Amino acid sequence: MSWIAKNSLSWLQTLAIKVLKTGHVPKHVAIIMDGNRRYANKAKVEQVEGHTKGFEKLAETFQWCLEFGILEVTVYAFSIENFKRSKKEVDCLMNLTKQKLQRLLDEREKMMEYGVCVRVIGNLSLVPQDIRILMAEAMRITKHNNRAFLNVAFSYSSRDEITNAVRDVIRSVKDGDITTDDVDENLISKCLYTYKSEDPDLLIRTSGEVRFSDFLMWQTSYTCIYFTKVFWPEFNAWDLIYAVFYYQRCYSDMVKMKDDCQDNVSMLNNKTKKFIYKLYKEREILFENVSTIPMIE
Ligand code: FPP
Ligand code: MG
Question: For a surface tag, which of 177, 185, 205, 220 has the fewest beta carbons within 10 Å of its beta carbon?
Answer without folding.
Answer: 185
